[in-house]
Amino acid sequence: MRKKLLVVLSLMFILVFSACAKTTTTSTNGKEESIKIQDDLGKTIELKEPAKKIISLYSAHTENLFSLQLDKEIIGVSKSDKYPKEVSKKKVYDYKEDPENIIKAQPDVVLLRTTTAKAHKDFVKSLENAGIKVISLYPKKLEDFDKYIKTLGKITGKEKVAEEKLNRYHKNLNAIKTKSSQIKDKRKVYFESTTNDLRTVTKDSFAGKAIEYAGGINVAKDATSLKKSSIASYGTEKILSKASEIEVYVAQKGVMNRTVSVDKIKKRAGFDKINAIKNDRVYIINEKLISSPTFRYVEGVKQLQKFMYDKPTK
């Protein structure tokens, strides 16, 4: 009888212990699956698990999500998305249209640029009221790029891939900087961000840091930021005051600067006095390579370095 009682008590102990262990494991797993981040507008977002259905309404977000191997998870993009080529297979959405179009798709997450979220608050509110997580991200400075990519990795469960991509990115960028450090006669550069008012960029922006990494000297380091953005005011008068200093003139072409061309720059009044014009060192670079927060930035810095130090071709 005593032996049977011991067996029963032993079994009861094992069952109780197993139940407790199971409860603890579930609780721990629950915490691990829960994802909490703060977006660039200071909003705290919590996800129960990595996002599996994503609509990205900013081209850099889209490009970076593809870089993190999230093709299947991307169920929608914006109409301005062109890269990589796989975006052409995705359904197109627009924050200027009825938010119901996105609500019907039932995404886990909608990714926006911060300026878009601030300019279209009603759109954001409609999505949030429908239970959709809206995350606004945008790294204004190059130093914020790592944090931005890691946040995308955390949201999507691709933290390891994000880390690997960033390691490769920094390795390639450091190789360019090592090459630049060996250049003794550094070229002085003016970078045009927009034809409108001939604006430039802030020194700590993606394009501003690219000049430094490529081995150049930014003649517009004194440029003043506009509305706390990476775009900076400068203008014709200041540019011409440094005409003899500017050895290389680079203008980005894209959404912010659609109509720019080498020929148009050369024909501007007074620009014939600029050293870069005289020596045929005027170049156009893709805005997406030099000012957009993506891994292709390395390609943009390489291209900028070639503009500065390769012999000009006519």
From TrEMBL:
Family annotation (InterPro entries): ABC_Transporter_SBP, ABC_transptr_periplasmic_BD
Pfam families: Peripla_BP_2
Keywords of the record: Signal
Coiled coil regions in record: none
Signal peptide range: 1-21
Domain Fe/B12 periplasmic-binding, residue spans: 53-312
Transmembrane segments: none
Family of this protein: Belongs to the bacterial solute-binding protein 8 family.
Protein's name in the database: ABC transporter substrate-binding protein
Organism: Clostridium oceanicum
Lineage: Bacteria, Bacillati, Bacillota, Clostridia, Eubacteriales
